[in-house]
């Protein structure tokens, strides 16, 4: 039984490796030794963590690390460390990924009810079109030179252990216009989202994600599931949270201007739904991407 499993894993990983980043000079061409190295490292990991083995998508996580280190030993152990952090993403039951998709659904509903209602109407509120984003941490969505910078932000972010959810929400809010205006169904949304690959501006996305996090955290009416499951905020009075944020960033309703740089929730004294206004109001605050 072990030999059968090893044969299946070998066949699957071979096919994935042969499709991974072959447009990059480092992996380009026939009989490329670096491609063989990827396969060997993945097979070594299967023996190292036999219970998990190889799951589709792992080659996407290993490839940038090998491209960075240019050393199989360094790349392998970096990959092991990375998989230790995201191992649950690859479990067969997919409970972790399903849970993250559910949290993303809650976050989008809170931030932009109009977008969420459209997705729900089109049977897309399961957010399966974001599955790849969360599984491999946006690896295919950004250019190779940006992927490691993005991953470093995710690994070291002091804001939330689920910061990928804010990055995903920021991208969806940036792209909400075509999705709603064109009345996209699930198939259209999936194609549209996949076509964003390699076209997203990393620093714009990171700036919007950071602004999104701070402005949600400053709201006095954060739903329980977002507060506890996504923001991971202890039971501190909401008013003190808002006061702390305003003291740090000096955000007021007068800061709303017409700009395309960053998104911001409206101030709490505005009567309109702050979620639906997320992409209508922006801040003059120079929110630098997390570094």
Radius of gyration: 21 Å
Low-confidence stretches: 235-291
Give the total of beta strands: 2
Describe the sheet with the most strands: 2 strands, antiparallel
Whole-number average pLDDT?
Answer: 80
**Distance linking N and C termini:** 47 Å
Helix content: 55-70%
Can you write the helix and strand succession as a string?
HHHHHHHHHHHHHHEE
Q: Explain this structure to me?
A:
With 291 residues, this protein is an all-alpha fold. The protein contains 14 helices and two strands, in the order H-H-H-H-H-H-H-H-H-H-H-H-H-H-E-E. A two-stranded antiparallel sheet has the order 1-2. Helix 5 packs across helix 6 and helix 5 crosses helix 9. The longest helix has 17 residues. The radius of gyration is 21 Å and the shape is globular. It starts with a helix and ends in an 8-residue tail after the last strand. The C terminus is likely disordered.
Features:
291 residues, two-stranded antiparallel sheet, mainly alpha, 2 strands, globular, disordered C terminus, 14 helices
Question: Brief overview, please?
Answer:
57% of the residues lie in helices and 1% in strands. It is built from 14 helices and 2 strands.
In terms of topology, how is this protein built?
Elements (H helix, E strand, L loop, with lengths): L1 H16 L15 H16 L9 H12 L2 H15 L8 H17 L1 H9 L9 H5 L8 H13 L6 H12 L1 H6 L4 H10 L6 H16 L6 H7 L7 H12 L6 E2 L24 E2 L8
Antiparallel strand pairs: 1-2
Helix pairs in contact: 1-2, 2-4, 3-4, 5-6, 5-9, 9-12
């Amino acid at each position: 039984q072990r030999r059968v499993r090893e044969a299946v894993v070998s066949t699957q990983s071979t096919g994935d490796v042969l499709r991974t980043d072959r447009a990059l000079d480092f992996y380009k061409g026939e009989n490329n030794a670096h491609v063989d190295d990827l396969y060997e490292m993945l097979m070594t990991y299967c023996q190292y963590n036999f219970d998990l083995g190889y799951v589709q998508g792992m080659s996407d996580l290993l490839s940038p690390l090998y491209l960075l280190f240019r050393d199989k030993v360094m790349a392998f152990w970096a990959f092991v460390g990375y998989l230790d952090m995201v191992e649950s993403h690859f479990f067969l039951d997919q409970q972790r990924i399903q849970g993250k998709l559910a949290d993303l659904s809650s976050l989008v509903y809170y931030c932009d009810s109009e977008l969420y209602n459209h997705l729900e109407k089109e049977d897309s509120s399961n957010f399966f079109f974001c599955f790849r984003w969360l599984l491999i941490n946006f690896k295919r969505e950004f250019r190779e030179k940006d992927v490691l910078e993005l991953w470093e932000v995710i690994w070291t972010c002091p804001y939330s252990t689920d910061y990928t959810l804010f990055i995903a929400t920021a991208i969806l809010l940036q792209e909400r216009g075509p999705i709603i205006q064109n009345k996209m169904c699930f198939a259209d949304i999936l194609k549209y989202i996949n076509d964003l690959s390699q076209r997203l501006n990393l620093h714009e996305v990171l700036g919007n994600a950071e602004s999104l996090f701070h402005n949600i955290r400053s709201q006095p009416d954060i739903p329980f599931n977002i507060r506890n499951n996504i923001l991971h905020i202890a039971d501190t009075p909401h008013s003190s949270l808002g006061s702390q944020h305003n003291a740090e960033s000096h955000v007021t309703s007068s800061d709303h201007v017409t700009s395309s740089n960053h998104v911001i929730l409206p101030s709490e004294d505005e009567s309109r739904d702050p979620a639906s206004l997320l992409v209508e109001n922006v801040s003059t605050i120079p929110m630098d991407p997390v570094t």
